[in-house]
Amino acid sequence: MSFLYLHAMKYISGKDRKQTSLFPISLEDSIDADNSVRAIDQFVDQLDLAELGFRLDHIENGPPAYHPSLLLKLYIYGYMNRVRSSRQLEKECRRNIEVMWLLESLAPDHNTISNFRRDNTKAIKKVFFATVQIARNFGLIGATLIAGDSTKFRAQNSKKNNFNQKKIQRHIDYIDRKLEQYNRALEQSEDDNEKEDIAKDIDTHKGRRKQYEQLEKQLKESGKPQISTSDPDSTHLIVRNNITEVAYCVQSTVDAENNIPFDYLVTNRNDSKAMGQMLRRAKAILGTNTFTALYDKGYHTGSEFRTANQLGIETLVAIPGIGRASQAPDPSYNSEHFKYNQENDTYSCPQGNTLKSNGSTYKGRNYRFKQYKTNKCRVCPVRALCTTSKVNGKVIQRSEFHQYIEANAQRVLQNPGAYKKRQAIVEHPYGTIKRQWSFDHIITKKTKQRASADVGFMFIAYNLTRIWNILRETKGSIIKIHMFFVAFMESILRYVGVFCVQNPKNQIQAHH
User: Fold this and answer.
1) Helix or strand or coil: residue 304?
2) Tens digit of each residue's pLDDT (9 = 90 or more) over 314-356
3) Half-sphere exposure of 89 (CA within 13 A, CB side)
4) Domain-located, residue 138
5) Rounded to whole angstroms, how far apart are CA atoms 42 and 489?
6) Is 95 in the same domain as 179?
7) I need a labelling partner for 114 at 20 to 30 A (CA). Which of 55, 384, 466, 479 fits?
8) Is residue 85 part of a domain?
9) What is the C-alpha to C-alpha distance for residues 236 and 246, in angstroms, rounded to an integer?
10) Structurally, how many domains does the chain consist of?
11) Which domain holds residue 68?
12) pLDDT in tens, 431-483
């Protein structure tokens, strides 16, 4: 019975591959009206590519070139569909009907595709700012509350190909020990064949030693604490806890209104000195300093608070815990419980004693500070609870930036609800890019500028996707996605020439 039932079942049948169609379907008819590929086409066609810095003039006698708009469309489509490799994009040109429609059936080779990303790093950044301007035109950026953070993207450079002085010396010492062993073995050996093998090993190790000596020379000439041989601009950074990678650190600033990034910067440094520069850029991009900026404790640096104060920007930066070495035996006697008297430049301890400074300033790692102490510590009944020092007693250090650090601490305590929003704001783009899209590494090699182009396309794809999704929800499903662009292209043309770029002095200027 079951056998007859199986034979009676009907299945959907496909068309005969050899059968010709009387009415062939065109590429235009194959793409739905609300397909996002139409929005990409509209977006790029309305950009002034010459104004953005894309090269449009080519040698007339040479072979015909692909128009920059075509390659820009291909990259935006690729990143929005999780395809970054130039070789994979080349394949998509020949098998993906959406790409065929977008590129009008043209199929550039992977070298042409790769060279476009390599040669247009600055222009790609300006395309990103065009997406920011679209968001502003639609009122999607509030410019009242922003959040900044960074994330690490692995570079195309293994840990084995990253060196500092300690690592180079360790290799040289190992080779020297091996050479001593080989030389002793050579002296003791009486077999000619064995001597020949040992001599070859000695030559091999001497050659390796020269390579490390050359690396040591490059390291000293660079003036940097480390060098990478595959991707010179990448550095060995802490990713989380004790896990490290050779990577780039990407700073971003995100507006709280709709979690839309309006700035990014590819660096090879940690967060401690990044906040001031990112706030300066944010002020120039948004054209205001009336916003509040949220950062985590990695950005808690005195000099950066001073920069924020000079810019007139209010910050809420998480307060890091006191290090174990600075902890008092009884936490109630930690330095934050000592009251500072600004009028006479003294501190009062919980026991009512006054700690004074001798007026001298001392040089710390990145700042200058004063020291405050009192001889009352010698006879203080709670000394064992306050300090473990057996010589000077309790010593308070006050940095030159302490007033700015203290002001931030007061703001955090007064606005606990505002700071709690930080993670939800700034982690949204990173979560999408790194987890959902699996873009957890830099695909380019050789320079920070090329890495910036890769990251730029990530943020372009994120912003366009985010904007379209928001507009779909607010405008309703009746309006097709490409119709959004028809509605605002006239307004964006007035702003497309306005972009924020970094000048050689690390300042931000608006170019019209």
Assistant:
1) helix
2) 999 998 877 676 788 888 888 888 888 888 889 999 888 888 8
3) 30
4) no
5) 9
6) no
7) 466
8) yes
9) 4
10) 3
11) 27-119
12) 999 999 999 999 998 899 999 999 999 999 999 999 988 887 775 543 445 55
d(CA 74, CA 76): 6
Looking up tokens 């520069």 gives: 277
299 near 426, Cβ under 8 Å?
A: no
454: in domain: no
Does residue 428 lie in a domain region?
no
The packing angle between helices 192-222 and 165-188, to 10°, is: 160
Among candidate residues 228, 256, 273, the one where a domain is terminated: 228
- The one-letter amino acid code at 211 reads Q
CA count, 13 A, side-chain hemisphere, 411: 20
* 232 in Cβ contact with 447 (< 8 Å): yes
Cβ 260 vs Cβ 141: under 8 Å: yes
The residue out of 364, 379, 400 marking a domain boundary is 400
Q: Which residue has the tokens 């010492």?
A: 173
Q: Where are the beta strands (DSSP E) in 256-366?
A: 260-267, 292-295, 314-317, 339-341, 346-348, 354-357, 362-363
Distance CA 242, CA 296 (A): 18
Q: Considering only CA atoms, which of 296, 336, 294, 337 is closest in space to residue 319?
A: 296
Q: Is 319 exposed, middle or buried (0-12, 13-18, 19+ CB in 10 A)?
A: middle
